[in-house]
Write a structure and sequence with these properties.
The structure holds three protein chains of three kinds.
Chain A lengths: L1 H20 L1 H25 L11 H22 L5 H7 L1 H6 L5 H7 L7 H17 L6 H32 L5 H13 L8 H9 L8 H8 L15 H26 L2
Helix pairs in contact in A: 1-6, 2-7, 3-7, 3-8, 3-9, 8-9, 8-11, 8-12
Chain B lengths: L4 H16 L2 H28 L8 H15 L9 H11 L2 H6 L4 H31 L8 H27 L8 H14 L11 H9 L7 H9 L7 H32 L2
Chain C lengths: L6 E16 L3 E17 L4 E5 L6 H9 L6 E6 L8 H5 L2 E5 L11 H11 L4 H14 L15 H13 L5 E5 L7 H18 L2 E6 L2 H7 L2 E6 L2 E6 L1 H8 L2 E8 L12 E6 L2 E7 L5 H10 L2 E7 L3 H9 L3
Parallel strand pairs in C: 3-7, 3-8, 5-6, 6-7
Antiparallel strand pairs in C: 1-2, 1-4, 8-9, 10-12, 10-13, 11-12
Helix pairs in contact in C: 8-10
The chains are: A mainly alpha, B mainly alpha, C alpha/beta.
């Protein structure tokens, strides 16, 4: 594990240094990134020009929900987003060059073309989350702080796992790489809104089958002090770490299977 | 310097076939469009439940908006991609010199190819998710034939305008080294001001005025207006008319810039 | 392990199942035996050429030796370890140059690639600086160091790749079709460099190629692979012998004469004062030349080596 982190640090560091040599370009790209993600939240602001509550939640509460999801996706995209390029590397054979180096292949893929400007989305999410947290009238307790901070970590890890699984899927499925987008960006879009707008069956599926509701929804319910609108058990609001561990295990297995598959069939 | 109709036809067919070979990518795309369609549909349902008749739409119209706009994403090239990056790369590598020295109009050829591609995307990634949407939700379809005809014309114009915008951005690569910033800005402007992110009818007046001045609404909002308002004959002309004007203007600029690019490559060897 | 060679390959096999679409829905599969029971061993310090027609199994063998591809069956040991099982551990001891793709970072300057590799392979700073200076000088990389790899020509990139593969002092250097696409001058320089690398540093080299001259100039041993099977493994003399090739001595006599009588050689052609003699490739030309000089007045004489092109098809043809 230490080897992997070291490898990541070395490679990502090189890309960061390279991007900083073109400082002007880097600054513009980061600002563009912030602007792009701001327009994303602007949609919700436009909706609220007509409403005072959406799905039973105030704008501030939705800002909290939105910020948590956006932060998690932004961090995952920053750290592992390039895993989605693995399909291209399989096709052009550059995966072989990675396999002959003494660094884990996933680390090399993730750190390759590390783009610091992706911090733009993270910055925007923190901004929205910060505003939401300040104005939502939350009754703060140490537990609530812990759950919020924890959710930012576990949510990021869940999205990271989804990116890795998407990469593994590409090794098997080649051209169909877009499928992962439905879960990463789709998952973020889904998670921007309170789940009260979705039918109960869908929320059940997102809780017990593909547990993406644990990225931000359940922790948010706890932080905002809201009872579960669907009447699901309260302990779900504490279950994020366990679910996250499950995601990590599945992601790890799927990745190992993908590399095994590549190494036993060539390309 | 011109090409015959059969040449354009052949190029369009080639564009269609080229994308038709990406079978698993198409299936993946249908899946993704469907997922996003479902998410946005529930969002709009909640919004219109809280504000019935928002922007003059009922819930059924809003849901129709979701699925038809999802179908239009790929044909009008809302997320840029494809042609823009391909073009910028050709300029960077110098391969574009080959294109510019050919005795056929570059703009026309590229347009024909894009129309072929758009036709494939509309038929594959457009129709399938809409069918799913129609089964899962209650949508509002026009009852009169002329409306469908006008809608088809409007979609065709939307594809042309979408192409022209991306073509212009691709040409920019001749003069600007790094176009990725512009490409990103274009993508977000298209998503926001086309009505894709939220129907423009819901926008507050200031933003609405801004979006009316931009060509992006012709990509999604205008075809949807034609479809949903069921304007027939003269009443739909302003909508189609706006698209025709933008298409002509953008293609005109495209042609002029192409000549400038040819000049730059042939004369200056740039 | 004492007594074990650096690279040990025993009955190595690799099969692929290839699916082909027949029409809209049907798929046919057939089994391809890319490597079909190959055995050899390579000692430390050898320079071995691995040659064969397209699709013979050369790249597949290299991929198995480096751990990229897992063998279907057979025993494979490199530096005492099984490459498929301990790939990353082995990576520290080997360098790989792929002719058709680069191991360098495409969008970064060449220097950055070297720096990255220094840290990835944990090369001690002194060793790194010494090697870098050596290879930059030998491969003339100085003016290229600041350029992004994507702006380099094929020949320049190949030189960069070779330097990159050697920075960490690997015991073995694998090269998979390194001269493809290079111009004649670049090929010559590359061959000279590789030859020196083997003789001066003792780096074990395994080189796959189509180009027969690569092997002649760099290697002392050649393995010929055809349709997954090793059809020849030995030195050049043996290769010529097996192939039944011949050497030619062209002699210009002072006067026109009848076909010369010289033991060990036969005259194949006479044109005026010039005669062509052919002798077995593994025979020495010395005695023949001496006999000629003793019995005839010679104006000029030359010896042509058997072309390896002539030898190989004879080996391939065997079913």
């Amino acid at each position: 594990m230490g080897d992997a982190l070291r490898g990541y640090r070395i490679i990502a560091g090189s890309w960061i240094r390279a991007s900083l040599t073109y400082r002007a370009s880097f600054v513009t790209l980061t600002l563009t990134s912030v602007l792009i993600t701001f327009l994303d939240f602007a949609i919700i602001l436009v909706m609220f020009s007509h409403l005072t509550a959406f799905g039973g939640f105030s704008l501030s509460s939705i800002a909290v929900i939105y910020g948590m999801s956006g932060f998690s996706l932004g961090m995952a995209d920053l750290l592992l987003g390039n895993t989605e390029l693995v399909g291209r590397r399989v096709r052009d054979g550059s995966l072989d060059s990675m396999l002959v180096r003494p660094v884990p292949t996933l680390v090399q893929l993730a750190a390759d073309h590390f783009a610091l400007r992706r911090m733009g989305r993270v910055v925007q999410a923190v901004g929205v989350l910060g505003w939401g947290v300040a104005t939502a009238g939350i009754g703060w307790t140490p537990a609530r702080v812990a759950v919020l901070a924890g959710a930012l970590v576990t949510g990021s890890v869940i999205f990271c796992s989804i990116f890795v699984m998407g990469g593994a899927f590409q090794v098997f499925a080649g051209d169909a790489s877009e499928v992962a987008n439905a879960f990463t960006y789709g998952g973020n879009t889904l998670g921007q809104y309170p789940f009260t707008i979705y039918p109960a069956d869908l929320v059940k599926a997102l809780t017990f089958i593909l547990p993406m509701a644990f990225i931000n929804w359940y922790p948010a319910l706890y932080v905002l002090g809201r009872p579960d609108p669907f009447g699901f058990p309260e302990w779900l609001q504490w279950a994020s770490p366990v679910v996250t561990a499950g995601f990590v295990v599945v992601a790890g297995c799927s990745w190992r299977a993908a590399i095994r598959r590549y190494r036993s069939t060539g390309s | 310097m011109s090409g015959s109709p059969t040449l354009y036809g052949a190029v369009a067919t080639r564009g269609f076939r080229r994308y038709a070979t990406y079978r698993s990518a198409t299936v993946a795309g249908i899946f993704t469009n469907t997922v996003f369609g479902v998410i946005i549909a529930y969002t709009y349902l909640a919004l219109w439940h809280a504000r019935p008749n928002l922007g003059g739409y009922g819930a059924a119209q809003a849901l129709t908006f979701v699925w038809v706009s999802q179908s239009l994403i790929m044909p009008v090239g809302l997320f840029g991609g494809g042609i823009v990056e391909e073009y910028a790369e050709r300029v960077r590598s110098g391969a574009v010199a080959v294109d510019l020295h050919r005795p056929v109009p570059l703009l026309g050829i590229r347009l024909a190819e894009d129309l072929g591609r758009a036709a494939y995307h509309l038929l594959s990634r457009g129709v399938a998710p809409t069918v799913v949407g129609a089964l899962a939700f209650t949508l509002a379809w026009p009852r009169t034939a002329p409306t469908w005809g006008l809608f088809a014309a409007s979609v065709l114009l939307a594809v042309v305008i979408g192409f022209a915008i991306r073509y212009l951005l691709g040409l920019l690569a001749f003069w600007v080294i790094d176009t990725t910033g512009f490409a990103a800005l274009l993508t977000i402007s298209q998503i926001f001001f086309s009505g894709m992110a939220l129907p423009l009818v819901v926008f507050p007046s200031g933003l609405r005025a801004l979006s009316d001045a931009l060509p992006f609404r012709c990509l999604v909002q205008v075809p949807l207006d034609v479809l949903l308002r069921e304007d027939t004959g003269a009443a739909a002309l302003p909508l189609i008319g706006v698209q025709v004007l933008w298409a002509a203007a953008l293609l005109g600029v495209g042609g002029a810039l192409t000549r400038a690019a040819v000049h730059k490559v042939v004369v200056q060897g740039g | 392990m004492p007594g074990e060679a650096l690279i040990e390959v025993a009955d190595l096999r690799r099969t692929f199942v290839v699916h082909e679409r027949r029409g809209l829905l049907r798929r046919e599969s057939r089994t391809v035996h890319a490597v079909d029971g190959v055995s050899f061993s390579i000692e430390a310090g050898e320079a071995v050429g691995y040659i064969g027609p397209n699709g013979a199994g050369k790249s597949t063998t290299i991929k198995m030796l480096t751990g990229i591809l897992v063998p279907t069956s057979g025993r494979l040991r490199v530096a005492g370890v099984d490459p498929s099982a301990r790939r990353r551990e082995l990576a520290l001891k080997i360098g790989v140059v792929f002719g058709q793709r680069t191991g360098l970072w495409w969008d970064l300057p060449l220097r950055d690639s070297f720096e990255l590799l220094r840290r990835i392979y944990r090369v001690p700073l002194q060793t790194y600086e010494r090697n870098l200076a050596t290879f930059v000088a030998l491969l003339k990389l100085e003016p290229l160091l600041g350029q992004p790899v994507r702006t380099l020509s094929l020949g320049q990139r190949m030189r960069g790749d070779i330097a990159a593969a050697l920075l960490h002092d690997p015991a073995i250097l694998y090269l998979d079709e390194p001269t493809i696409g290079l111009d004649v001058h670049s090929k010559q320089r590359l061959r000279a460099f590789l030859g020196e690398l083997n003789t001066e540093r003792g780096t074990t080299i395994l080189l796959t190629t189509h180009d027969l001259v690569d092997i002649e100039k760099v290697c002392s041993r050649v393995m010929v692979i055809d349709r997954g099977r090793l059809v020849f493994d030995g030195g050049f003399d043996a290769l010529h012998r097996v192939g039944g090739a011949t050497r030619t001595v062209v002699v210009d006599l002072v006067d026109v004469a009848d076909p010369v009588q010289v033991p060990g050689a036969t005259v194949t052609r006479v044109e005026g004062t010039r005669q062509w003699l052919s002798l077995p490739a593994d025979a020495s030309t010395g005695p023949v030349v001496a006999a000629l000089a003793a019995r005839y007045a010679i104006a000029d004489l030359s010896v042509t080596e058997p072309a390896i092109e002539d030898v190989l098809p004879l080996l391939y043809a065997d079913p």
